[in-house]
Amino acid sequence: MHSHKELESLISVDMDAGEVFSGKRSGTTVKGYAKATSSTPAIYPEFIYHDAMRDIVVWFMSPPEPLYVFGPTGSGKTSLIRQLAAKLHYPVFEVTGHSRLEFSELLGHLSLDNGSMRYEYGPLALAMKYGGLVLINELDLLDPATAAGLNSVLDGSPLCISDNGGEMIIPHPMLRFVATANTNGGADETGLYQGTLRQNIAFMD
Which residues pair with 117 in a beta bridge? Predict the structure, then answer.
């Protein structure tokens, strides 16, 4: 459960990238938040940052494109993203992909609250509304039709939530979107990752 009041109080700040990640000032700034939230991953002091982190830190700098990270199980894809987000105090809205996940689950749903209906925002809607990082793990397990539902959002278009009176959410400037997977989105030809699905070429683009 994410606290809307906490997310509404987020304040973005400029951080020195070198100071944040290595303790030495670099003069290169990266945007983060003034303080962590309950949705921000914990920092693991023993975590070792490998060379790939430099590319992802650059990606965190505005304006970013959606990021797709793929590699073998256990290679640290998700851990790296979480730890970079932790250092920058980013709230992370994490989802694990599976073949039955529907796009509507990323948006949210109507729920009963003290006898009246109200809309509960899902991870994508929260990140777009308040700023934060959407992290979809195992994206290559998604039904391609569900993934394709993200196309307009990833292009920077507003999100329309028809179940909430047609609410339009303009993407927050601090929105970041990352997907991790075991394959490059072209399905698995090794036989090691059963259940992975070939993704729509427009989505992968």
Answer: 112
> Residue 184: its pLDDT value, please?
59
Instruction: Please name the amino acid found at residue 193.
Output: Y
Q: What angle do CA 8, 85, 24 make, to 5 degrees?
A: 115
Residues in the chain: 205
- Residue 22's φ and ψ, nearest 5 degrees, are -130, -5
103-121 confidence digits (pLDDT tens): 888 999 988 888 788 899 9
Q: In a 10 Å sphere around its CB, with 0-12 CB exposed, 13-18 middle and 19+ buried, how is residue 76 labelled?
A: middle
Alpha-carbon distance of 80 to 48, in angstroms, equals 9
Which among 143, 156, 158, 154 has a CA at the least distance from the CA of 178?
154
